[in-house]
Amino acid sequence: MSLAAHVSLSLGTFDLDVQFSVEPGEVVALLGPNGAGKSTVLRALAGLSPIDGGRIIIDDTVLDDPAADVFVNADARLIGVVFQDYLLFAHLSALENVAFGLRARGMPRARARTIATEWLGRMGLRDHADHRPAQLSGGQAQRVALARALATQPRLLLLDEPLAALDAGTRAEVRSDLRRHLATFAGMRILVTHDPIDAFALADRVIVIEGGRVSQTGSLAEVTAQPRSRYVADLVGVNLLSGNIIHGVLTTAAGAQIVSSYGVDAPTPDGSALVSIRPQSIVLHPEQPLGSTRNVWPVTVIDIDQYADRVRVRLDGPVPLVAEITPGALAALSLQPGSHVWAAVKASETTAYPSY
Amino acid sequence: MSDATRSIAPPRRQGRPGRPVGRERLPVVALVLAVIAVAFFALPLIGLLWKAPWSNAWSLLNKAGSLTALRLSIVCSLWATALSIVFGVPLAWLLARVEFRGRGIVRALCTLSMVLPPVVGGVALFFALGRRGFVGQYLDRWFDIRLPFTTAGVVVAQTFVAMPFLVLTVEAALRQFDRRFEDAARTLGAGRWYVFRRVTLPAIRPALVAGAVLAWARALGEFGATITFAGNFPGTTQTMPLAVYLALESDPAQAIVLALVMIAMSFAVLIALRDRWLGAVTTPAS
Q: A188-193 and A27-31 as β-strands: parallel, antiparallel, unpaired?
């Protein structure tokens, strides 16, 4: 089963237009900042918000096509949804929640309960069958919501911010549980998240949505190596510089020049381009270094973030950068905000690619 | 909390020392005013009890007409409540969920009878549904239905004044209800009617019960619209409030007994239902 979606919608002044496809058995994350339109895409796929333009097709079935006046109601789409705050029915037990979809489709009560019990068992919740949602922890409620959605055997499973409702302490555990349970479902899975950790932990592929448009798609490695926007670069924690490239030398709008790894695999064609630099590749020197390093700039330390085993130093200069150094280096250089140092990056440590 | 955790945790007093929870002291002025309010409601009741002819209460109650009026009151008010639910819930739905021009006007129109003097409502009903009325003449001519001065007319008058209470209560609940639960049910394959029955209705049930009780209470006490539109015929349209009013002129002792019966009945229903409908709102399932 595969999905081809072109969702075009306008909500007041916000204009959403995204196009993507999902292959059989794939787990895809829609990643983007809050308000980018991710959840709206999910609602459109589920049939809860009709689209204004475009088309949504699963296999050969057209689910929504305003031009052809086709709209399949949410209850007939066979698309399971796990909502952000789970939306378990408060007046029903965990078991009745899971059986809800089967009963709604006309399955006899006894059989629906048997199947629901099996699902709760699979989720490790057999002992919680009679509990009301109010008595479940966040992680348990999520598993009930997942079982409720999967029990109807959907052809596509949608998860809206599946970990956002949880506190930091339980997130990691629930994330690995969710990963395990998601793996048991063979159909297409799409999850919406604003957290790159969730996206990369749970999905095979990421579709980045910013301001109502798809800004980038690809695997973790692809997106990290060649971020296409400031948002993605910040998410994956790399430096991103844009400008015009001629013979492997990028000139930024501010006039700074970066010599890139021109011609290592395939030369980046001249024109508008991006260069990404990993913070770990930047070396800081107290004096101007003399050597083979091609990119050397005088910079000023703006601020310093210390983590357990590394230090991120934000720098201003001809090229604004974030460098990652060790606590030892920080002590040796005696850096503090306002310090003047030299930042150096070897051309071979930069990645240049066209910006289109 | 389970017994296990309770036994492990040392007993702890909550709140600040010297201010046990649940015994917060009200400012004296507020307390005095509140006590006056309670007295204001209690005194008329005490007055009735004090004046009640206890020695021959039973015979007065059994006097011809009293029990008939009581039965008529119960039957008509229950019919009015049922009709209020059947028509009022869809009306509340329309007002809460469907956006249309003039919705405010429609809402005002449908709840006007709450603020209207009941006699005015009765007069209006008479000119609309009476035998010469604007709709009533066709009901009479085509369907042979005559509402004024019939028991059905009592039910119509009571429904007219009672339904707004149910509509407003249910509409408020529908507005408060998070519609995403309905979305969740739809994605699970539930059609609209199934969603309403299994998701929306259970969620608004406390409000529905509360609204039905308010409507029933209003119908039970209805006087003005009933006497204007349906008249005062013992056995067909003379309900308890009408019987009490008339007895006051002929036999005050009987009026007191009838009044006490109504008070006892209303009080019993309020107490019996209070825990059920408020309980469903405030206490989570345990």
A: parallel
Chain A residue nearest residue B197, CA to CA: A104
Residue boundaries of the structural domains of chain B = 59-282
Which DSSP symbol is given to A50?
-
Residue of A nearest to B195 (CA): A104
| Per-residue DSSP letter, A267 | P
Question: For the segment B193-231, what is each residue's pLDDT rounded down to a tens digit?
Answer: 999 999 999 999 989 998 998 899 899 989 899 999 888
Q: How far is it, in rounded angstroms, from Cα A322 to Cα A277?
A: 9
Which of A42, A83, A87 best tests the B interface by mutation, with the highest count of B CBs <10 A? A87
Q: What is the pLDDT of residues A126-179, one digit of tens each?
A: 899 999 999 998 889 999 999 999 999 999 999 998 888 788 778 888 888 888
A3-225 and A237-354 agree in CATH topology: no
Question: What ipTM does the predicted assembly reach?
Answer: 0.79
**Beta-strand relationship, A257-259 and A249-252:** antiparallel
- What is the DSSP annotation of A93-161? -HHHHHHHHHHHTT--HHHHHHHHHHHHHHTT-GGGTT--GGGS-HHHHHHHHHHHHHTT--SEEEEES
Interface of B with A in 161-180 (CB under 8 A): 178, 180
Domain ranges within chain A, ordered by starting residue = 3-225, 237-354
pTM for this predicted structure = 0.77
CB pairs below 8 Å between A and B: how many?
71
In a mutational test of the A interface, the residue from B181, B182, B188, B194 whose CB has the highest number of chain A CBs within 10 Å is: B188
Of 3.30.470.20, 2.60.40.420, 3.40.47.10, 2.40.50.100, the CATH number of A237-354 is 2.40.50.100
CA angle in degrees (0–180, nearest 5) for A267-A271-A276: 65
Tell me whether residues B187 and A134 touch, CB distance under 8 A.
no
Inter-chain touch B189–A48, beta carbons under 8 Å: no
How close B280 gets to chain A, by Cα (Å)?
10
Residue pLDDT, tens place only, A277-308 = 888 899 999 888 888 888 999 999 999 988 87
Question: Any residues with CB less than 8 A from the CB of B268 and at least 6 apart, and which?
Answer: none
A201 C-beta neighbours (distance < 10 Å), count: 17
* Residues in A lying within 8 Å of B, measured between beta carbons: 43, 46-48, 73-81, 83, 87, 89-91, 100-101, 103-105, 132, 134-135, 148-149, 152
**Measured between CB atoms, which of B181, B186, B189 is closest to A89?**
B181
The fourth-level CATH superfamily of domain B59-282 is MetI-like (1.10.3720.10)
Q: Collapsing DSSP states into helix, strand and coil, what is residue B229?
A: helix
Q: Quick one: what percent of chain B has pLDDT higher than 90?
A: 37
The DSSP symbol for B26 reads: P
- CATH code of the domain occupying A3-225: 3.40.50.300
Q: Which residues of B touch A71 (CB under 8 A)?
A: none
Closest to B171 (Cα-Cα) out of B253, B84, B96, B249: B96
Q: Find the residue in A nearest to B196 (Cα).
A: A104
Query: Per-residue confidence at B281, pLDDT binned at 50, 70, 90?
Result: very low
